[in-house]
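Hey, quick one: can you model this chain's 3D structure?
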Amino acid sequence: MASLKQNLHEIINQSTKIEDGAPTRYHLKHNADEKSEQYRIITYGERDSNKPHKTILMVGETGIGKTKLINVMINYMLGVQREDRVWFEITDDQSDRTSAQSQTSIITVYGFYLQESPIDLTIIDTPGYGDMRADNEKMMRAMCLLKLIISAETIHQLDAVCLVIKASQNRLSDQQIYIFDAVQSLFGKDVAENIVLVLTHSRGVIPKNALTAVKVAKIKCAVDDKNQPVYFLFDNCQSDSADEQNKMMEDLWNLSFREINFFFEFLVKIKPKSMQMTQDTLEQRKELEENILKIKSNIQQINTETQESNQGKEQIEYKKNHDDESEVPFKEMVVIDPAIASVGLHCTICEENSHYPRCWWVRSLSWCCVMKKNHCTICTKKCHYSKHVNGAPIYLTKANKEQITKENSKKYDAKTEDCVSKIKNMEELQELKLQKMKLVIEAFHCVRALEMIALNTDSLITLQHVDFLIDELKKINEHEKAQTLENIKKRAGEEKNKVLEYLKRCIK
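Sure thing. Here's the predicted structure for all 508 residues.
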């Protein structure tokens, strides 16, 4: 890398001092932020289309050291040496605060385009999270936004996915497994050799316990010629003030900059991956999600039709014996589980339940997976999303008894005819059952397709639907297919199934 010294004063003059010390910390003056609901972009310098361009995705928990790691990369590219006694930062220091302090769940894209550097660099920083129970909504939203970035082809290719953990860890937490699993579930199989472990807070020793923890959790990553995970070690003390003669600080500085050099050598050698297989994976996951929703909606319709048919039979039988009264059906909104407030989505026009529980992590109802082109795919009239409302209450059909008089007898004769019509209309009910059977088989084939192309074939995103599909396959006597899904669940292992149960509790 080019030496910084010739440009040192110019960069310092253009930067904002954060803190005096050894080193003195400065915040780089970057270009104006580009913001959207999906992500924000922070850039330094002007991109050179003739230079090689590398794109890195960073994933890790709150407090793991991602922010400092990004700044280590920036200072390495600037050519900063320990004797320069300066330290530059491009981050806003949000991602590594505690979960109580962290105020953002937005993805940040850092573009670092230094004239003297042989490469241009883009770092996609996913938000850090602490306790899954507190941060689950933000995590789910971040995953959705990461999907949007990839599916919108904002990322054309990816050079490295960095899974950041502490070198001292002897096991991955449930939320770490969930975060890594969710990110890996987005990619195609071809990305596996571009996934590396980045171990922070290291003192330079081989992190045997951390590497074992990654293997136990079945986290996929690149391996070396000895079939061991590819990893890089970093300490996080470069910006900390220390005596210039402090030998330990000098050694840790050298460790991090030696490893960052190895990391950039890896970036140069590794073949970047196109997002095409990842696009195919996302399409299959989207199709699976849509099929699951349709199956659940179909089941609701079948239950409603069956209930109405039975009510029709009961009403006719009742009318034979009670010619003086009849039941008047009406819809009422009922709270079925106050513990999960605001997760129901219902249509105020059709007076129907559109999605329960809804995609509660999305900011706008137009983003909900039951919406297509801003209209609901579930409610009868396919109403605009603006006609839908959040809330735990759902619609239930009830009935009141009403006396039959000469004035309203025609109304009840018509209602009786309607009941007879519903009883006779068994073909519609049979059609619904055939549709459900078809959807269940299609959902099964989506899972099988993901096995062929997805990096994470037994992802938690898939596993959360497996039990439901197993039950539905058994109901239509597809026991062999049900056993295939049982095998996927078994292959996922105890760790992932334990995390899946933990995740279900967190969502509740």
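One thing worth noting: The first strand starts at residue 16 and ends at 19.
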